Amino acid sequence: MGFKDSNHPENSPQILPFQVEKQPPQLSIHTDDTDIGAFYRQYYSLVYRRCLAMLGNSEDAQDAAHDVFEKIHEQKSKGQLNIPYPKTYLSTAAKNMGLNKKKRARRELNELYDMATNGSINWFIERGNGEGKVKWSAGIVDNGYEQVEAQIIVQAILDEQDEITRKIYFYKYHDDMTLEQIGEAVGLKKSAVQKRLKNLEEQVKVKMGAS
Protein backbone atom coordinates (compact mmCIF):
# COMPACT_ATOMS: atom_id res chain seq x y z
CA MET A 1 0.00 0.00 0.00
CA GLY A 2 1.53 3.28 -1.00
CA PHE A 3 1.25 6.62 0.80
CA LYS A 4 1.83 10.13 -0.38
CA ASP A 5 5.14 11.65 0.66
CA SER A 6 4.42 13.68 3.80
CA ASN A 7 7.57 15.69 3.20
CA HIS A 8 5.79 17.34 0.31
CA PRO A 9 2.63 19.09 1.55
CA GLU A 10 1.16 19.22 -1.91
CA ASN A 11 1.07 15.42 -1.87
CA SER A 12 -0.34 15.14 1.64
CA PRO A 13 -3.76 13.38 1.72
CA GLN A 14 -4.93 15.85 4.41
CA ILE A 15 -4.80 18.83 2.09
CA LEU A 16 -5.47 17.32 -1.30
CA PRO A 17 -7.69 19.67 -3.26
CA PHE A 18 -11.18 18.39 -3.92
CA GLN A 19 -14.19 19.59 -5.76
CA VAL A 20 -16.67 21.11 -3.31
CA GLU A 21 -20.26 20.36 -4.20
CA LYS A 22 -22.53 23.32 -4.32
CA GLN A 23 -25.08 23.21 -1.53
CA PRO A 24 -28.54 22.87 -3.06
CA PRO A 25 -31.11 25.50 -2.02
CA GLN A 26 -32.83 24.50 1.21
CA LEU A 27 -35.85 26.52 0.17
CA SER A 28 -36.78 26.80 -3.47
CA ILE A 29 -39.79 26.97 -5.76
CA HIS A 30 -39.86 23.16 -5.54
CA THR A 31 -40.13 23.12 -1.75
CA ASP A 32 -43.41 21.65 -0.58
CA ASP A 33 -45.73 23.88 1.46
CA THR A 34 -45.55 21.33 4.29
CA ASP A 35 -41.78 21.74 4.42
CA ILE A 36 -42.15 25.52 4.46
CA GLY A 37 -44.51 25.14 7.42
CA ALA A 38 -41.91 23.04 9.23
CA PHE A 39 -39.28 25.65 8.39
CA TYR A 40 -41.53 28.31 9.90
CA ARG A 41 -41.95 26.36 13.14
CA GLN A 42 -38.22 25.68 13.37
CA TYR A 43 -37.04 29.25 12.89
CA TYR A 44 -39.90 31.46 14.04
CA SER A 45 -38.50 31.98 17.55
CA LEU A 46 -35.13 33.02 16.11
CA VAL A 47 -36.75 35.62 13.86
CA TYR A 48 -39.09 36.82 16.60
CA ARG A 49 -36.26 37.33 19.10
CA ARG A 50 -34.24 39.29 16.55
CA CYS A 51 -37.20 41.53 15.77
CA LEU A 52 -38.01 41.97 19.47
CA ALA A 53 -34.44 43.05 20.22
CA MET A 54 -34.73 45.74 17.54
CA LEU A 55 -38.28 46.92 18.15
CA GLY A 56 -38.63 46.41 21.91
CA ASN A 57 -42.33 45.66 21.56
CA SER A 58 -43.81 42.15 21.48
CA GLU A 59 -46.73 43.02 19.21
CA ASP A 60 -44.52 44.84 16.70
CA ALA A 61 -42.00 41.98 16.80
CA GLN A 62 -44.74 39.43 16.05
CA ASP A 63 -45.93 41.50 13.10
CA ALA A 64 -42.38 41.86 11.75
CA ALA A 65 -41.64 38.13 12.16
CA HIS A 66 -44.88 37.26 10.38
CA ASP A 67 -43.94 39.61 7.53
CA VAL A 68 -40.56 37.87 7.13
CA PHE A 69 -42.20 34.49 6.57
CA GLU A 70 -45.01 35.99 4.51
CA LYS A 71 -42.34 37.27 2.14
CA ILE A 72 -41.10 33.69 1.67
CA HIS A 73 -44.59 32.59 0.62
CA GLU A 74 -44.79 35.53 -1.78
CA GLN A 75 -41.45 34.61 -3.33
CA LYS A 76 -42.61 31.06 -3.89
CA SER A 77 -45.90 32.15 -5.43
CA LYS A 78 -43.93 34.32 -7.87
CA GLY A 79 -41.53 31.49 -8.68
CA GLN A 80 -38.59 33.38 -7.15
CA LEU A 81 -37.89 31.35 -4.01
CA ASN A 82 -34.24 30.36 -3.72
CA ILE A 83 -32.67 30.43 -0.23
CA PRO A 84 -29.46 28.39 0.07
CA TYR A 85 -28.69 29.43 3.66
CA PRO A 86 -31.95 29.88 5.62
CA LYS A 87 -30.49 31.04 8.95
CA THR A 88 -28.36 33.72 7.29
CA TYR A 89 -31.30 34.81 5.16
CA LEU A 90 -33.67 34.99 8.13
CA SER A 91 -31.20 36.91 10.28
CA THR A 92 -30.74 39.52 7.56
CA ALA A 93 -34.46 39.61 6.71
CA ALA A 94 -35.42 40.07 10.37
CA LYS A 95 -32.92 42.93 10.72
CA ASN A 96 -34.18 44.67 7.57
CA MET A 97 -37.82 44.15 8.49
CA GLY A 98 -37.19 45.58 11.96
CA LEU A 99 -35.40 48.63 10.54
CA ASN A 100 -38.14 49.24 7.99
CA LYS A 101 -40.83 48.93 10.65
CA LYS A 102 -39.02 51.41 12.91
CA LYS A 103 -38.64 53.88 10.06
CA ARG A 104 -42.29 53.48 9.08
CA ALA A 105 -43.46 53.91 12.68
CA ARG A 106 -41.34 57.02 13.09
CA ARG A 107 -42.62 58.45 9.82
CA GLU A 108 -46.23 57.84 10.88
CA LEU A 109 -45.54 59.39 14.27
CA ASN A 110 -44.02 62.46 12.62
CA GLU A 111 -47.12 62.80 10.45
CA LEU A 112 -49.28 62.72 13.57
CA TYR A 113 -46.97 65.24 15.23
CA ASP A 114 -47.34 67.55 12.25
CA MET A 115 -51.14 67.34 12.25
CA ALA A 116 -51.49 67.61 16.00
CA THR A 117 -48.90 70.37 16.33
CA ASN A 118 -50.60 72.38 13.62
CA GLY A 119 -53.78 72.07 15.64
CA SER A 120 -52.13 73.17 18.88
CA ILE A 121 -50.25 76.07 17.28
CA ASN A 122 -53.44 77.32 15.65
CA TRP A 123 -55.26 76.97 18.96
CA PHE A 124 -52.61 78.99 20.79
CA ILE A 125 -52.59 81.63 18.05
CA GLU A 126 -56.35 82.00 18.30
CA ARG A 127 -56.13 82.35 22.08
CA GLY A 128 -53.49 85.02 21.75
CA ASN A 129 -55.08 86.68 18.74
CA GLY A 130 -51.82 86.10 16.88
CA GLU A 131 -51.07 87.08 13.33
CA GLY A 132 -49.20 84.10 11.90
CA LYS A 133 -46.82 83.91 14.86
CA VAL A 134 -47.26 82.26 18.20
CA LYS A 135 -48.76 84.06 21.19
CA TRP A 136 -49.52 81.77 24.08
CA SER A 137 -52.26 83.86 25.64
CA ALA A 138 -53.56 87.39 25.55
CA GLY A 139 -51.01 89.77 27.00
CA ILE A 140 -47.94 87.64 26.28
CA VAL A 141 -45.52 89.44 24.00
CA ASP A 142 -44.96 87.82 20.62
CA ASN A 143 -41.50 86.18 20.68
CA GLY A 144 -41.08 86.14 16.92
CA TYR A 145 -41.30 82.37 16.54
CA GLU A 146 -42.58 81.27 13.17
CA GLN A 147 -45.01 78.38 13.15
CA VAL A 148 -42.45 75.87 11.82
CA GLU A 149 -40.02 76.76 14.60
CA ALA A 150 -42.80 76.30 17.15
CA GLN A 151 -43.60 72.89 15.67
CA ILE A 152 -40.01 71.76 16.09
CA ILE A 153 -40.01 72.82 19.73
CA VAL A 154 -43.32 71.09 20.46
CA GLN A 155 -42.20 67.87 18.75
CA ALA A 156 -38.95 67.82 20.70
CA ILE A 157 -40.89 68.16 23.96
CA LEU A 158 -43.37 65.45 22.93
CA ASP A 159 -40.48 63.06 22.26
CA GLU A 160 -39.57 63.33 25.95
CA GLN A 161 -43.09 62.51 27.21
CA ASP A 162 -44.56 59.14 28.10
CA GLU A 163 -47.03 57.41 25.81
CA ILE A 164 -50.14 58.52 27.74
CA THR A 165 -49.13 62.19 27.61
CA ARG A 166 -48.50 61.98 23.88
CA LYS A 167 -51.91 60.36 23.41
CA ILE A 168 -53.53 63.15 25.40
CA TYR A 169 -51.86 65.70 23.17
CA PHE A 170 -52.96 63.93 19.99
CA TYR A 171 -56.53 63.48 21.22
CA LYS A 172 -56.74 67.14 22.16
CA TYR A 173 -55.19 68.80 19.14
CA HIS A 174 -55.55 66.20 16.38
CA ASP A 175 -58.92 64.63 17.22
CA ASP A 176 -60.31 67.68 19.02
CA MET A 177 -61.67 65.57 21.87
CA THR A 178 -62.97 67.06 25.10
CA LEU A 179 -61.12 66.58 28.39
CA GLU A 180 -63.81 64.12 29.50
CA GLN A 181 -63.46 62.08 26.31
CA ILE A 182 -59.69 62.06 26.59
CA GLY A 183 -59.92 60.94 30.21
CA GLU A 184 -62.09 58.00 29.23
CA ALA A 185 -59.73 57.07 26.40
CA VAL A 186 -56.56 57.03 28.54
CA GLY A 187 -58.06 56.01 31.88
CA LEU A 188 -57.45 59.28 33.75
CA LYS A 189 -59.66 61.80 35.48
CA LYS A 190 -60.48 65.07 33.74
CA SER A 191 -58.32 66.98 36.23
CA ALA A 192 -55.32 64.72 35.50
CA VAL A 193 -55.73 65.24 31.75
CA GLN A 194 -55.97 68.98 32.24
CA LYS A 195 -52.86 68.95 34.43
CA ARG A 196 -50.82 67.12 31.79
CA LEU A 197 -51.91 69.47 29.03
CA LYS A 198 -51.08 72.48 31.19
CA ASN A 199 -47.67 71.01 31.96
CA LEU A 200 -46.99 70.55 28.24
CA GLU A 201 -48.04 74.14 27.56
CA GLU A 202 -45.73 75.41 30.30
CA GLN A 203 -42.79 73.39 28.92
CA VAL A 204 -43.30 74.88 25.48
CA LYS A 205 -43.55 78.37 26.95
CA VAL A 206 -40.26 77.90 28.79
CA LYS A 207 -38.51 76.58 25.66
CA MET A 208 -39.75 79.56 23.68
CA GLY A 209 -38.98 82.05 26.41
CA ALA A 210 -42.62 83.04 26.76
CA SER A 211 -43.13 82.26 30.42
Task: Domain count, please report it.
Answer: 2
Mean pLDDT: 77
Structural Rg? 29 Å
Q: According to CATH, what is the topology of the largest domain? A: Arc Repressor Mutant, subunit A
Order of strands, widest sheet: 1-2
How many angstroms does the end-to-end distance come to? 98 Å
Description:
The protein has about 210 residues and is mainly α. It has two domains: about 25-85, no CATH class; about 105-205, Arc Repressor Mutant, subunit A (Orthogonal Bundle). It is about 65% helix and about 0% strand. It has seven helices and two strands, in the order βααβααααα. It has helices at about 35-55, 60-75, 85-130, 145-160, 165-175, 180-185, 190-205; strands at about 25-30, 80-85. It has a two-stranded antiparallel sheet. Helix 5 (about 165-175) packs antiparallel against helix 6.
